[in-house]
Amino acid sequence: MKHVTICDHSFMKKILLGTIYIMIKIRRLTHYQLISREYRVVGLEDMDVKNELLSGLTSTPKYIPGWYRYDKEGSRLNDLCLQENENYYFHRCEMNILKANLKSMCSSDVKNSILVDMGSGNCEKTRLFIDHLLLNQEKLDFYPIDISQEFLLDTCRKLSAEYAGRLDIFPIAADYETGINKLSTCSQTKVILWFGSIQSLEAADQIRKLQMLKKTMTRDCQLIFSVDITQNRESVMKAYSDFHARQLYMNSIWRLIRDENCDVDPDNFEMEVDFIKNNSADTMSFVQVLIRAKQANSFTVPTMGITVALNVGEPLYLHEGPGISHKFTFQQIQTLIQKAGLKLADSWVDDEDHVVFCKCKVL
Ligand SMILES: C[S@@+](CC[C@H](N)C(=O)[O-])C[C@H]1O[C@@H](n2cnc3c(N)ncnc32)[C@H](O)[C@@H]1O
Question: Hey, which of 70, 128, 182 would you mutate to test ligand 1's pocket, going by the most ligand atoms within 8 Å of its Cβ?
Fold first, then answer.
């Protein structure tokens, strides 16, 4: 009798433990499948990476699109740059603003909303918003959009583990436009974050993408974005000439070698960084990053069947358009918001005048 009781207990215990184990497995599997399913469904197949590269390498002047530097290695180098580049004021000042103003940024009128993060990266800043939104709602649906798909998936796995059942993640591994199109089917109230990235788009593209994003927003939605307002040449040059910033930009070349079997020799080039100032109402100051041929040389890109020849002194830009990482005046921010068809609801600036966060709503 005693023996049977012990057996019963241990049998019940085994069933209980087994059930818990299966539940945990199912939960993890559901999350993982959710991530990998979304990952497959909305992957980069919508974007013609090779065609965009080809058009940059065969145009005059030659260029590699700025987003190309963001593969898994590029995202790692970006994180390293944020940690190690002491001259990179932008991230430090963004964090200062967020820590001091999070409550007023994330007002209480956004209960039961979903969270969208454009160019989500490692989600360090996003975590502050996730924590804040979860104070007022039991669960949160989170839609991170990023072109760096492996890194995005890694970040989602970490977030899934950290927030357990309270965060449902729907990653969109894609370029911004594909991401915005995917969002348009989602009718819930959205809090949309876009940190440190609008400024890297060409001026006309900034307006275009904000106009697209606006179409996914209702009156209750809000878009919070940050841009660089630094106009001091010395600060900008120090930040972008730093070793870690250069490594990040050079990843475009290293990725060409890794992914396209390209035989380009980086030693044939010298990197140049410059800051071009503009103060007119709609033309921002910007940074130029290029590698210049030290001697005439050529390289092949076997996956595209092309040979790229450069004359001595010829530049190869590491971004599309005249510049990257635009620096805004307040008037230029107003113009951008107005052309996008949005209205500025609030804004926050840091003490050093490097960064502004804008909260926008639809008109
Ligand atoms: C400067 S980082 C900012 C990361 C993060 N938002 C932050 O504030 O730390 C830019 C991010 O946008 C992503 N990105 C760059 N170009 C993109 C594009 N065209 N479409 C989607 N994501 C892009 C990069 O992979 C990277 O994670």
Answer: 70
Atom of ligand 1 nearest to the CA of 121: 27
Helix (H) or strand (E) holding 288: strand 285-293
The protein residue whose alpha carbon is closest to atom 21 in ligand 1 is 175
> 2 CA to middle of ligand 1, Å?
65
Q: Answer whether the bond into residue 144 is a cis peptide, omega within 30°.
A: no
Which atom of ligand 1 is nearest the CA belonging to 193? 6
The answer for residues whose C-beta is within 8 angstroms of residue 17's C-beta and 6 or more apart is none
Atom of ligand 1 nearest to the CA of 120: 6
Cα separation, 237 vs 276, in Å, equals 10
The pair of three-digit structure tokens given for residue 253, joined into one six-digit string: 């070349």
Q: Tens digits of per-residue pLDDT, 257-293?
A: 999 999 999 999 999 999 999 988 879 999 999 999 9
Q: What is the largest CA-CA distance in the chain?
A: 94
Q: Look at ligand 1, atom 4, and give the residue with the nearest C-alpha.
A: 121
Comparing CA positions, the residue from 112, 346, 340 lying closest to residue 215 is 340
Alpha-carbon span 129 to 147, nearest angstrom: 21
Instruction: Report pLDDT digits (tens) over 135-167.
Output: 989 999 999 999 999 999 999 999 999 998 899
Round to whole Å and give the CA distance between 195 and 216.
Answer: 18
User: Is 73's C-beta closer than 6 angstroms to any atom of ligand 1?
Assistant: no
Instruction: Report how far residue 227's alpha carbon sits from residue 199's, in angstroms, rounded to the nearest whole number.
Output: 6
Average model confidence (pLDDT) across the chain: 89
CA of residue 197 to ligand 1 center, whole Å? 6
Helices (H), the chain: 2-41, 49-57, 72-84, 89-105, 124-136, 149-163, 176-183, 203-214, 233-241, 243-260, 330-339
Nearest CA to ligand 1 atom 18: 175
DSSP 8-state assignment for residue 42: T
Task: For the full predicted model, state whether its pTM sits above 0.70.
Answer: yes
Rounded to the nearest whole angstrom, what is the distance from the C-alpha of residue 214 to the centroid of ligand 1?
19
Q: Hey, is 1 helix, strand or coil? A: coil
